[in-house]
């Protein structure tokens, strides 16, 4: 069927004919505070604010525990910045910065129990840290020596997933397996899965299908969307007409929006969500409302699509600074602690840098290694032929 | 010795695998109460329960993607795709995750998933129900791809595919589902990744797989009248291809005709031809020929008799080869 002759496409400046509260997506711009439903325990000014629903999930976070969280945030930011610098020095092919999202990731990662499983996207360096993956193990992906060298089973942290949204279905299937094995309930060995993805991924079919499967099978999976406001150059309003956390209602489970720059709130809300899942009340969708303060990757140029003012406004909500202020002003932590974390981060950065340049190239065997669990005559023949060819150059 | 249809043979094979290993799951659209649109999974949910035979929501990426997650957890899911042309919404999960996780993780994350796909034409179906997309999977490193052609193989191959630690794309020739054959339930089966000479001969080698195997055997019988003694090889495994028996055969016969329903260009049949000319060049008495579907989308079903390689087209190719 062809379009009527007098039909003309609407221009982008044509105002929407469907105004209304659902059309306005709360919190898309730098000035937005995330809406009235935003869960927050620590303000950008470093003030602890009460939350009757979630305070109990952070009640054990004493001064020492908060200092540990601060240390996490600083160290993760430090090696992330080193990753960025290493790419600029030509040591890495690309780096995916997490600047600005440290609290969203540390809060969620530290909320997990050892037996839980995380399915990350590719920016989850902070979650990796919280799961005990040494940061140097992230380097191979970006230097091109491997696709992730850590053991997903031992760490409870699956390999990075580059294809947007794929991991939401894999995580859901894994969570279904936890349920099938009877690991959901009040027992001490009950388990949950947490799946990380971005606001852009919510447009992918796999995320929708993950929500459907998780809902109909009551899978113990927390969908943890880090809404960092931008999917490369596309803003969140290019993904949705409603706040992302509200989508959960349409699938029949809880959705909640948390201040993604507030590590305490992210910790508390994720603990609650994981507990919901472990005890059979999942799935749960968390929207961690945050901001990507750097480029999407080192190949990106955000100055082409967003205003510097936006970044400046989000700097005022920095996830690290608010914890530091709270530690100093409210809890009286002495400067020596911060000096110690600084020294530790310097040492980590140096180790990270050195490891990067020391990483050996994998050699041609890597191409042919572990393609199949049970081998393949074709691959075996190609390996033997190529290695013989390769070795013919020895001594030349 | 049992006499079973291919559909029942696969059903029995699934049942045997599920009885042996509680981690084996069957999942897909309508596989439970209905028993699948072809009834291949008939009765399994009744006997194994809804947690082992999952009637899933209607989305192929969801079926494959959750199967990948279940396999990571330690299960052995067997996914049913209702028809060949419906697999493509799940193709991303198959290619991006299922095929690559073992390699990406350096062997730490095996994904023993079987994806069953009824494939090929000849049942008078509407669009998207008669395709032969096997080359699209055989081209993907990390997957293993097989096609059964008779009830006996189907019974054993489905069990072997489930026992494999590699992901296996399992093609079932849907127009042969209702054909009966003897199945030796106590036999020592042919290995999963092995082609097999199913009819010895000396004049020319016919190689095929899946639904056309029967056509090849009929052609070999018909060619006897012309004094041609055809050897027929069932390729069975499309990735990795097991071409040793084909090479041996061609070195004796000097002639090869490859038969398949899929379009010819860059197909499994093309790969067989290329490899045979690499390995058997000095033995060939004639060019290697292909008899395949055409390089068109699968046509409306009233055209499929012309589209599918039939007895006459196979015999015509045999005559052309013998004429060199």
UniProtKB/TrEMBL annotation, chain A:
The keyword Isomerase does not apply. GO terms for molecular function: branched-chain 2-oxo acid dehydrogenase activity; magnesium ion binding. Its cofactor is thiamine diphosphate. InterPro entries: Alpha-ketoacid_DH_E1_comp, DH_E1, THDP-binding. The keyword Plastid does not apply. It comes from the Bacteria. Its EC number is 1.2.4.4. Keywords: Oxidoreductase, Thiamine pyrophosphate. Pfam families: E1_dh. Residues 1-31 are annotated as: Disordered. GO terms for biological process: branched-chain amino acid catabolic process. Residues 8-17 have a biased composition (Low complexity). Residues 73-336 form the Dehydrogenase E1 component domain. It catalyses: N(6)-[(R)-lipoyl]-L-lysyl-[protein] + 3-methyl-2-oxobutanoate + H(+) = N(6)-[(R)-S(8)-2-methylpropanoyldihydrolipoyl]-L-lysyl-[protein] + CO2. Belongs to the BCKDHA family. The branched-chain alpha-keto dehydrogenase complex catalyzes the overall conversion of alpha-keto acids to acyl-CoA and CO(2). It contains multiple copies of three enzymatic components: branched-chain alpha-keto acid decarboxylase (E1), lipoamide acyltransferase (E2) and lipoamide dehydrogenase (E3). This is 2-oxoisovalerate dehydrogenase subunit alpha. It comes from Pseudonocardia broussonetiae. The lineage of its organism: Bacteria, Bacillati, Actinomycetota, Actinomycetes, Pseudonocardiales.
TrEMBL record, chain B:
Keywords: Oxidoreductase, Thiamine pyrophosphate. Residues 4-179 form the Transketolase-like pyrimidine-binding domain. GO terms for molecular function: magnesium ion binding; oxidoreductase activity. Gene3D superfamilies: 3.40.50.920, 3.40.50.970. Its cofactor is thiamine diphosphate. It holds the Pfam family Transketolase_C. This is Alpha-ketoacid dehydrogenase subunit beta. It comes from Pseudonocardia broussonetiae. The lineage of its organism: Bacteria, Bacillati, Actinomycetota, Actinomycetes, Pseudonocardiales.
